[in-house]
């Protein structure tokens, strides 16, 4: 998707064409949803919305393991967002690329994420904490490499590894949440987790944008990489329970 968008912006009419194509693509999703005939399961008696939400939030707040998973997500996502938020500047200022080059860089991230999903299926003998530690260190290293080496080819290869690390961390944390949460509160707990995750992305993008504006692109990315590495070290202290037996 990003690679096609970059090509269209650079050679086939600009950003307005991309947004038009994106709008048209949503129509096909709407058609698919309208054509979907799902068999409705038997519904249990439903709780009232506000008390149910309050009960879910109370459980999440008082369960130490859930709080630790969310803390690990916050500690990683806020500094890790420096790369995602500043990637357009990295493409234009650091690597001298236009829209098509930026699209390829973002596509490299996506390629790495797909590879990460495939690799994770085979890491059955590696512990949860081992995966998180290795992937967080890899993410920090790739952030430093991409801002220190002004090579487009090197950036593409580095971003594949970065996307792999991102997928390994985010999917592992999400799987931990789903395995640890009891069935009665799982949907509410995952909803709260998603809110925390998205809030961390928003906060991280704002912080590192301000840092880059004040101190420069290179220092912002390098400092963020150091903070990601600090999150890896924190993970040695705030370890997550192993869930391979569940």
Which overall shape is indicated by the principal axes computed on the Cα atoms? globular
What structural class is derived from the secondary structure elements? Answer: mainly alpha
Please bin the fraction of helical residues: over 70%
Record field, number of beta strands: 0
Mean pLDDT: 90
Element order: H for helix, E for strand: HHHHHHHHH
Q: How would you characterize the largest beta sheet?
A: none
Q: Percent of residues in beta strands? A: under 5%
Q: Give the termini separation.
A: 36 Å
Q: Catalogue the unreliable spans.
A: none
**C-alpha Rg, in Å?**
20 Å
Structure annotation, total helices: 9
3D architecture notes:
The protein is an all-alpha fold and 246 residues long. 81% of the residues lie in helices and 0% in strands. It contains nine helices and no strands. It has helices spanning 2-11, 15-35, 49-62, 64-94, 99-120, 128-148, 152-180, 186-215, 217-237.
Compact description:
The chain is mainly alpha-helical and 246 residues long.
For this entry, give a set of tags.
246 residues; mainly alpha; globular; 9 helices
Task: Chart the SSEs and their pairings.
Blueprint: H1 2-11, H2 15-35, H3 49-62, H4 64-94, H5 99-120, H6 128-148, H7 152-180, H8 186-215, H9 217-237
Helix pairs in contact: 1-5, 4-5, 4-6, 4-7, 4-8, 4-9, 5-7, 6-7, 6-9, 8-9
């Amino acid at each position: 998707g990003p690679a096609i968008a970059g090509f269209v912006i650079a050679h086939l009419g600009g950003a307005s064409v991309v947004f038009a194509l994106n709008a048209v693509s949503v129509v096909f999703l709407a058609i698919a949803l309208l054509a979907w005939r799902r068999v409705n399961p038997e519904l249990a008696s439903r709780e009232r919305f506000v008390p149910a939400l309050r009960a879910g939030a109370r459980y999440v707040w008082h369960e130490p393991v859930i709080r630790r998973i969310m803390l690990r997500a916050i500690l990683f996502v806020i500094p890790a967002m420096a790369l995602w938020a500043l990637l357009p500047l990295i493409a234009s200022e650091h690597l001298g690329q236009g829209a098509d080059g930026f699209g390829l860089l973002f596509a490299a991230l996506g390629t790495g994420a797909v590879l990460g999903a495939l690799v994770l299926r085979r890491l059955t003998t590696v512990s949860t904490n081992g995966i998180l530690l290795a992937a967080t260190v890899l993410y920090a290293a790739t952030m430093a490499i991409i801002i220190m080496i002004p090579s487009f080819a090197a950036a593409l290869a580095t971003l594949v590894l970065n996307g792999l690390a991102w997928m390994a961390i985010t999917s592992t944390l999400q799987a931990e949440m789903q395995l640890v949460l009891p069935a009665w509160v799982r949907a509410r707990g995952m909803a709260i987790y998603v809110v925390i995750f998205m809030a961390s992305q928003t906060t991280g993008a704002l912080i590192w944008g301000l840092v880059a504006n004040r101190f420069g692109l290179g220092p912002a990315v390098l400092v963020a990489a150091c903070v990601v590495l600090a999150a890896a070290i924190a993970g040695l202290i705030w370890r997550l329970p192993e869930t391979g037996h569940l």
